[in-house]
């Protein structure tokens, strides 16, 4: 019997998603030239199989249409670019005209000594290697001036390791574009700490905050009374939570309840209440109760506002908070969608439960450092410059004292001097593992711009000391 080589495996594709194929003959492309060379193609479901299993086709259809701009690829910017290119957006543009420095080699794995000797700019040095990561993504660099009209070509703009003045300038330019919604993200790392800022503009809708499957159960009985009680069959415990919204279908007898949305109240192990059912017909049998996911409406603010007012400073009681939460829900009866207005958060995201207030200290430390950077001609302090460190610490204390006088909830009783000094002393350092960590988080936030998963709202501070 002759051994026959197996036939080549046919590439599986999905027609609903159409990414792009491009000509890689040149190392530096203009955006207009590349668009002419693009041809429609189908997504490689073998290449993206795990991603499709995690995200689903709905998110992937949005992701492959995203055009992304990344400003500065020293460390965290390159890590973010790598992760995004592997995820498969339509295009990624790199903007970084800074000349390669010897310090780049330790944090940027695509820059070598030859790039430093040749005095290549960073975008040229990393472009070829980035292009080899994913043939379905158009990757190019840009060396012109960043203007508002040019930014309209993008869906997401990411700024990495830039000073406060440029951050505010680019953020305001993006928010000034009325033609479409453009996401703006920023990330700076300072040695063993850093922050991420997210701005998805006004009235951003998150249609699925956790990505979990919709829960459902079989209905066994529905009572006819002022507070109608629903009994359901489930193997373990209730699949729902207090305050969830559910929709009924296939109910016999009490047909008035079908295809309507109700809020769960007084949830027990096998029962919950849905309100007045006294005017409905008698329940006979059957029915399926399915969870309805709330669409979260978030209003993002520009960095110019958030750096001064990072949190919601309204001090309200628990009863008032519950009342406001009820007022924040409203039903779109035409589409059977529940919307919930999400206010600005009252506290920072806690990254380390052993250091509850670390984000508060990092906020004042980094804001004072950014102030010094502008005062010092956009230069960060040297680690041995004690006068500069003391100057930054005093300004951070001034910021904190001002917020304490205004009774802002995020002000700390006493600012930790060692935290401020650690942030400032190593602010010029770019550590590869820290850049990799923040680059992964930043790329993850870009994915959330599709509307799936709850994004950072709006600041995240992290420190590893």
Average pLDDT number: 86
What structural class results from the helix and strand content? alpha+beta
Major β-sheet strand ordering: 7-6-5-8-9-10-21
In helices, the fraction of residues equals 25-40%
Q: What is the number of E strands? A: 21
CATH architect. name of the largest domain? 3-Layer(aba) Sandwich
Poorly predicted runs? 1-41, 315-325
Alpha carbon gyration radius:
26 Å
CATH homology group of the largest domain: NAD(P)-binding Rossmann-like Domain
Characterize the quaternary organization of these chains.
Answer: single chain
**Based on CA inertia axes, which overall geometry fits?**
globular
The CATH topology name of the largest domain reads Rossmann fold
Profile the largest sheet. Answer: 7 strands, mixed
Question: Ends: how far apart?
Answer: 67 Å
Which terms summarize this structure?
disordered N terminus; 7-stranded mixed sheet; Rossmann fold; 465 residues; Elongation Factor Tu (Ef-tu), domain 3; 14 helices; 30% helix; single chain; 6-stranded antiparallel sheet
